[in-house]
Amino acid sequence: MKRTMDNSSPSPSRWFRVLRRTVSGERSARKSSTSSVCEDILKKSQEAFSSGKTKPYSFRLEQLQAMVTMLERHESEFVGALEKDLHKPKFETILSEITTVKNEAIYAMNNLEQWMMPEPVQKSMSSFLDSCFVKKEPMGVVLIIGGWSSPIQLCLIPMVGAVAAGNSVVLKLPQTCSHTAGLLQTLLPLHLDNNCYQLLSGQHIELLEILEHKFDHVFYIGDSMTGRQVMQAAAKHMTPVSLVLGGKNPCYVDKTCDLAVAARRIAWARFVNAGQNSLAPDYVLCTVDVQDSLIHELEICIHEFYGKNPQDSLHYGRMASLDQYRRVKDFLSCGQVVLGGQTDESERYIGKD
């Protein structure tokens, strides 16, 4: 009996070959798109810097003032965007995001002229008859990879420094906080020079593909694993890098501490922005004799700060993304929950009532 093969239903191996080609093609197209966008933006930034436009004192001062003006005029819009992204309360947004950036910009404006002045240096015998000084020059095109936990602060504070130093800037906006990133993408071009300061945004923009291009300095804020990748990619071009990475912030409490004060400080630092900040304590080490008392004091502080049901509180934030929510939620299975532990994926809420 003769058997026939149905060619209309490919074998599994054939499907895998086709799938590999398809995925490879999609990645290639995405990489090509990212590369093209980066090349265009980098070229514009390099041309702007080479023209000398970013160097004069008057231009730097004007751009820093424009940042302050943007934050003042659109304060309510920034508050609304961060409320949507992180459920961040108005007071917290104004204090930790808007006012922090404004103060940084104003400080730079007040000291810019002095920073730009040449610094005299001590002469040696060989240079005794010479005029010796150190003159500060901008580095060129600076790539700033903005952080997501405090997106206004972590995008604009590095930008203040880069602008004050006379550089052109390429700012990669964090996509985790999409409403805030979208607002920055709209407002920055309206207030700052569009040739000297460029924005990169969109889910299709791959970080490591951006770093295949040569910048004159890279500023990254984020986790250590990605920081290593940034450093390795920048090293291929001998590009200097500034890294602001997450670390460990343990607290130690013993019987010599005022437990009420210690608990209040720990609770505030841990739960501001739902714990998504670099100063948040990772864990608490305490002696056995104060453990129960410390837990009781923490419970009192949480109820004082956020009420009996923090999920209904206007002052308690949410995880920035579902990935972040699920990562934090997994910690609940690592030990004994003595306070809180409620979760709500629809709100990205991790409870502590």
UniProtKB/TrEMBL annotation:
What InterPro entries does this protein's entry cite? Answer: Ald_DH/histidinol_DH, Ald_DH_C, Ald_DH_N, Aldehyde_DH_dom, Aldehyde_DH_NAD(P)
Q: Which domain of life is it from?
A: Eukaryota
Q: List each coiled-coil range.
A: none
Provide this UniProt record's keywords sorted from A to Z. Oxidoreductase
Q: Which residues cross the membrane?
A: none
The record, for Pfam families, names: Aldedh
- Where does the record place the Aldehyde dehydrogenase domain? 32-341
Gene3D superfamilies associated with the record? Aldehyde Dehydrogenase, Chain A, domain 1, Aldehyde Dehydrogenase, Chain A, domain 2
SUPFAM superfamilies named among the record's database cross-references: ALDH-like (SSF53720)
Q: Which family does it belong to?
A: Belongs to the aldehyde dehydrogenase family.
| Name of the protein in its database record | Aldehyde dehydrogenase domain-containing protein
List the source organism.
Ranitomeya imitator
